[in-house]
What does this fold into?
Amino acid sequence: MPYEVWLAIGFKARLPKEPNLPVRIVRFSGQALTEGIEERRIEGVKVKVYNPAKTVADCFKYRNKIGLDVALEALKDCRAQGKCPADELWRYAKICRQTRVMRPYIEALQ
It folds into this structure.
């Protein structure tokens, strides 16, 4: 079980009311909310999750809350496993407005 689950919702969406689940809510709008979504089946339930490249960009977006070391580890793992092509990372970095932050780290890994 994860310590907490991060849930992205729109700015005008209502907050979920589940007191027993450790959920951290983040609000996105526009392409930051809608791009990079994949449907996965987890224990027989369809779940919408962000793809690995979008997740890495979001880690850099919230690096002050989760720690820069977590964002860097996500980037390294994603690149090492071949799940995040460089062009896809740049696309989501632009959408999440993190190109300036991510550029030196991506260049160092290449």
Notes: Residues 5-109 form one domain. The chain has a mean pLDDT of 93. The first helix runs from residue 31 to 34.
